[in-house]
């Protein structure tokens, strides 16, 4: 993930439902754990622990952060709404993670051009795009961001939902809000990827245990799913 985009504040908000007052630099990887109700309000409801792996995006860690990419059950791409370049760099981070898994999602000549058909057909990894620092935009710019279409964006390319928020405001992900629903739906997809067979539609036997935690790395597949939070610029999480 990109660095300096507010990854640490975001993962803290997601995991604790409250803002982080004094965020620091992420060295290596920091892990937050969230209790998630899978398919809440339905007969299939179940409780899972989800690990959010906040991977440091510093260029100095580029050659070592790959150890945190396996296994990956879901990816959160994080960018800074006040820095357009950070959104453009999300492709680099996504490619870095997917290539770690040996996925060929790049079009012929352009190393930064994702082939949507190949991507959606081969990876099947749930992805969520989150823009932070919404509070730092003026009202005019904020309205443009919130009302714009996603045409050509990385969220559209990946078939992913997109959230724009202020990580320092607890109400940003309050229960029942549109963004909270998007986040919950994303976590459900990650759990399904880890615990359900795409071929049979049934839960995997043996390793599945609802009492065991699930981890999301930026997300893992034995007792818990793993989820990575990715930022834009020069870092992945």
What's the CATH topology label?
A: Rossmann fold
- The structure class reads alpha/beta
The stretches of 5 or more residues where confidence is low (pLDDT under 50) are 204-223, 230-237
Report helical residue fraction. 25-40%
Strands in their spatial order, largest beta sheet: 1-2-6-3-4-5
Please identify the top-level CATH class. Alpha Beta
What does this structure look like?
With 237 residues, the protein is an alpha/beta fold. It has a single domain (7-231), classed as P-loop containing nucleotide triphosphate hydrolases (Rossmann fold). The chain is 27% helix and 18% strand. It is built from seven helices and six strands, in the order αβββαααβααβαβ. The protein has helices at residues 7-16, 84-88, 90-100, 116-122, 139-147, 154-158, 178-195; strands at 29-38, 46-55, 75-80, 127-132, 161-164, 226-231. The chain has a six-stranded mixed sheet with strand order 1-2-6-3-4-5, sandwiched between helices. Strand 1 (29-38) and strand 2 (46-55) form a beta hairpin. The protein is globular and about 45 Å long. The chain starts with 6 loop residues before the first helix and ends in a 6-residue tail after the last strand. Residues 204-223 and 230-237 have low confidence and may be disordered.
